[in-house]
Amino acid sequence: MHDLVIRGGRVVDGTGAPARTADVAVDDGRISAVGRVEGRGREELDADGALVTPGWVDIHTHYDGQVTWDDDPAPSADHGVTSLVMGNCGVGFAPCPPEERDWLVGLMEGVEDIPGSALHEGIRWEWETFPEYLDALDRRQWTVDVGTQIAHGAVRAYVMGERGARNEPATPADIEAMAAIVEEAVRAGALGFSTSRTIAHQAIDGEPVPGTYAAEDELFGLGGALAAAGAGVFELAPMGSAGEDVIAPRTEVDWMRRLAAKTGRPVTFALLQVDADPDLWRELCDTSAEACAEGASLHPQVAGRPTGLLAGLDTTYGLLDSVPAFAPIGALPRDERVAALRDPAVRERILGWEPDPDTRAALDASYERFFLLGDPVDYEPGPDATLAAEAARRGIDPLELAYDTFLAEDGCGLLYLPILNYSQGTSEPTREMLLHPAAVLGLGDGGAHVGFICDGSTPTWMLTHWARDRTRGERLPLELVVQRQTSDTARLYGLEDRGVLAPGMVADVNVIDFENLRLHTPKVAFDLPAGGRRMLQGVDGYLATVKSGAVTRRDGRRTGATPGRLLRGARPAPAA
Fold first, then answer.
1. Going from the N-terminus, what domains does the chain have, and what CATH number goes with each?
2. Could you tell me whether strands 371-372 and 415-420 are parallel, antiparallel, or unpaired per DSSP bridges?
């Protein structure tokens, strides 16, 4: 008798091996057999005709505050994620003395667009040091396993105070003190250290993230702390990663390569296609592969789809914001705003607006870059799906089409604006990145940018688009798509006990109706503490998600099980 048996599914085990029909048996939270299982299970899942995969391992999230109050980190948990890593991009909440709490909330709010009011009300502060933060998390449980990194911004402010927060140079004594904190954190169970060097990341007061301008002695001192601890990943958003500078990334990859070689620790950095130099990503990927061939573990972290802004009536950004007649309406409560926009007189005032020539030119350009999302949602739209093209087909002004789109679905309609990874209007560069041997899949940003991005659903998109539906180019093999978001991501962070369906591994499993898997259009919800706003994206097709042998979701609905725990440090592979 087994605890759980998943019967007769099409098993894609996470190693890249061909799919096969098999049963999966689970005992004591671990996989005990994959193949023909004769014994019965105390609980059984019928997977006949379904896809059976490891649970997704998402290495780039920002649930650092949310996991202190929420046992089900959405949207990631809705999309088959069973293990996640947070503390990315140099922002986090430990170490933190009481007097710095408001400042760290403002840093997270500015960089990751998480409502400060929600963080202020929701976070349960039970720590000052990073080990105390881990202890606080250790007292909680979730539907997923949670691992975290220690963030440069918090460490710099803790050691250097105002000097650190304002990006003044660190002294040798500062570096020594920061390195000691990082080493202590990794020895206590942090999965790594993160920093940010892009000026696109700013606190709510407009100041760049602490560490943005850190010199090499500081970066290598902190990387040396990982070497001293003998564990941990060095993660960063490098200069120019948001397209603000196309020269800096080449300089950045040079010191990252040397850091990985010197410390012997993996370095992973955000890499996206930028409009200013659409082929730069290729050079950085190839340089990283050269470094790996020389023994330095340097891995570009790439996205599974374009990074795009969602614009609507409840989002951070909206096309109507520049229209003077919309300003007083935009400030109204949501229901009143929608009602006002349905007033013919209001509609006439807004659509009758005559912008000056410069504003008109900027708007016309934006109409060529905004897309209708479609249903089912499409993150690789062709040129015929732009706002301008669709408006021309209908014989109306693009602003009118945007207006009507926003009012659709009871005022929940959205437009899509790809800003990275879509320079040439195709996802072909993304496909090549996903195939690159040095690259690792990440950048979903689950829990962050909640007012205009919902890329935490990327694990599902990897299946629906890349393995099944893509028409504007080649697809990717299903086995590779599964491997990219299971064993590959787990291995980078030393989580060797998961990401593969094999005896002895943690029993994290997704059972998926692959043929009917479908992403819904993102929706704005106001369900964070203090009524805070966030984007969520529904999905059909996850028949069951299993975490450590416990079924946490059936047919997309929670079972109430919360088997997820804190991941303290790397996890060895089970003994053969």
1. 1-65+454-492+502-559 (2.30.40.10), 66-309 (3.20.20.140), 310-420 (no CATH)
2. antiparallel
